[in-house]
Each structure stands twice: as C-alpha cells, then as structure tokens.
Specification:
Blueprint lengths: L2 H29 L5 H11 L11 E3 L7 E4 L4 E3 H6 L3 E7 L7 H15 L7 E7 L7 H10 L6 E5 L2 H10 L13 E6 L4 E6 L4 H13 L2 H9 L3
Parallel strand pairs: 4-5, 5-6
Antiparallel strand pairs: 1-8, 2-3, 2-6, 4-7, 7-8
Amino acid sequence: MTPAASRINSWLRCRVVWLLLWGVFCSAAIAQEPMTPQDAGHRHHERGGPSSPASRANESLRLSVPDVMVWTQEGRKVRFYSDLVQDRVVAINFIFTACTTICPPMAATFSKMQDLLGDRLGREVYLISVSVDPANDTPDRLKAWGQKFRAQPGWTFVTGPKGEMDRLLRALDAYTAQKENHSPLVLIGNDRKKRWTRAYGLAPASTLAELIQKESAASPEEMDKQEAKPK
C-alpha cells in the first residue's frame, strides 16, 4: 500500500470512530433531555400511575362548594354556588387559556358533550370551566377560548380574584401551586341530591355523558338500591 493510501485509510478509520462516538453522545443527550413542567405533568397523567387522575376516576365524594364571587366569560359577576351550581346538575373542569397540553383536549371533550346533551344543555345540565390561572385569564380571554370550542349557552367559563379562586379550587380539590401541574379532573355533581363524582377529564365525551346521566337520573337512595340488587 502506498503512503498516500495508508494515510487515507487511517483518516477513514478515525472518521468512522468519531461518528460512532457522536451517535452515542447524541442518544444519551436525547434520553436525558429535561421535560418542561407541562410535558412532565401531561406524561404523568397519561401513564395512569397509582395517584394519577385516571386511577382515581369515578370516585364518589361529598363537596362543600363555596359561594365565591367570580366573573363569567361575558364579564358578569356571579356567585359560584348560588348562581351556577345550586339545585343543578353540573360538570366542572379546570383549564387555563395559555395551556397547550391537557386543556385543549378537555375543552374539545366538553364541546363534544354539548352535542351529546343537545337541548338538555342549559336546561337540565350545565358545563363550567374554572380557570386555574386567574391572574392572566380575563373574561375576554376566556370568551375567546370558548369560541374556539363552539361554547354554547349553558357552558360557563369563570375567573376571578386570585384569593377567591384559590379558595374555590381548594374546596373542589383542584388547587395546585403551579398551573402547569393541574390535573385533568372533571367533577360531575347533582346539587339537589348532594352527590358528586370525580371523573377523568381525558376520558371520551360519551363516558362523561354517561356519568352525567347517572348523576341526574337517580337519587343516592335509588342508586344504593340499584347497587344492592343481585346481578
């Protein structure tokens, strides 16, 4: 082999080794790439671990809903319990308008639920979306957000002073110090019967509609009797 050919072969071997080492480095870097809080929270919710919202779905619970003052997407001041929940069947989810992970799918699910509910929406069943980012979610921003998902009368978006909203979120077991970490939670309740169910907000709209039908159709006593019947 000539000296020139030998030098070329040596250069090629070095090049191959360098490319192999670079590939290993890139693979390790990708594997260790840090996730944003939004990504981390979203992947946690999707995995369905033992403490994830999916694993806690369809739990019955009792809630004491505070009558805090809030603003709707139309800029109206209302009392959350007295004006939006009292004596009604409601489904409540928790969103913020700058969210790009779990909030859009949850809003899309509520949008589909409107179609499933038909003329029951705003008469027998009411949808409520509560902002977990009241510092930034003004009524105008909530209204624009709702328009993207074809929000119809009977679907109300609420925000308000941060102190009051924190109080509301804590009472509904939906408070988190960082808005990006909030859970894909839906609360379905029949206030007249004082019965609430915690549901998974990323479940299909048909599943949530069935839970709404279950809550609106039977009293706790009737449901207890049905559950006690032999299969």
